[in-house]
Design a protein that fits this description.
Blueprint lengths: L32 H5 L1 E4 L4 E6 L26 E6 L1 E10 H5 L8 H21 L19 H4 L11 E2 L13 E2 L10 E2 L10 H13 L6 E5 H8 L5 E2 L18 E4 L2 E8 L6 E5 L4 E13 L6 E14 L6 E4 L4
Length: about 325
Amino acid sequence: MTQFAGTTDTFDSAVLKESLDSVIWDLFPMDTFFQNNIDKEEVTNTQHQWVFDTLAAPANNKQIQGDDVATYSTLATAVRVSNYTQIARKTILLSDTYSEGVNVVGKNPMGRAVMKAMKEYKRDVEFDLLGRQGSSAGATNTAAASGGACAWIWGISAAVPGNTVYPSTGGTGGNTTGTTDSYAAAAVIGQTDGTTSTSTVVLADITAAAELAWADGGEPDTILASSSQKKYIDALASLATRTVEVDPSAKLSIQGSANVIVTSFGTFKVVMSRYLNRTTTLVLSMDKWAMGQLRAPKVKDMAKTGDATKKIIVGEYTLIARNPNASAKIQGFKE
């Protein structure tokens, strides 16, 4: 069959109106669990300091009657540490033509741009709060850095021993080059990943990490895992439960993931993070972490210098590891 001569069709027309959805279908995941669930504090300077302490190990303590004390033990010194505030920023620049034109964004393109940038700001902050980066005071033309949670949970062989567990499988399955140095010279150094293990996280690794934190006096309650590590945790065959207590009137769902892990050293809610390093899992006492804000994020209008409108979103914050020994880290596992 052929078209009759002289027929006008859509391929010849210049007057067809475009077909375009009037809605922008966003993918804006905002599951910033760590940032949402730790305390917020006001800090008053770019270097924020705090002190944490522990008790001496318990020991046999027996004394004779009527003894006159001749020697006194020196109390263990508390640890004074600090972290530096980090400036985070998002910039927005829209031409006035774009702002006044008709588009899918609607009547307020700047409002949408600010909303999107604020969400991106919050995701950046979550990434750095959980990050491996060390802390730095900064300098002229060098940005200061807030040390992330992974940097604050030190290796067990560090100068100040911390609570890091490496793959329990030895040999080629192990990780012998990953390190996290302890706090020194007013800074945390940061996490070095080393060679990623060929072994996956197993229950013994989670239990070992929980035990380290528990032995130091911590009461960890949350396991934060990347999607890569969460899928292996989901496959654990024991001590993981797929059931949680729900209201009797609530609808029940079929779940294929480990939401709660029960060990002798605590019962842990398991949460997946989009922002945590893919080879790392954190075992956290959530009340021992806080976010310090020197400047809460604000939208600021910038001077107009041309045919466009400029705004910035800027804030300044730091991570406060109130007592990092209350938490633990599982580092260097197979993705």
